[in-house]
Give the backbone structure.
Amino acid sequence: MNDGTSMSPGHTADTRDLGSGVGNTHACEIRDLLDRLADKWSLLVVELLGDGSRRFTELRREIDGISQRMLTLTLRHLERDGLVRRTVHAVVPPRVDYELTPLGSTLLVAVEPLVEWIRDHRDEVAGARDHYDERGAAQKARSAG
């Protein structure tokens, strides 16, 4: 057993569904959804779809650095979670549109303040990063010299 690991089952009592005896299912579901939404691409896709329906190629063009495979996986996960609706149009060549579901729109409402904060403070964060990197480089130079 690792140091700091409790043998007592009481340390997980607040994460268990005591009524059904299912264990920490709810905590796992929350963690799984947070992992999905906090990945590199999901919230960006949700934000873009907040402006309206988009075709796959439009999303790929608007998201710098995403591969076709990663965009496909991200959209499938968001669709599975009920946040994005995929509509296939019976035309040649086939056309597929993606849009937020009503549930996805509620997520967008929750995320918009975060996106606005990022837009408002990105220069400050970039400056702080530069300052931190410069400080680290100066410390390295002092300890090497």
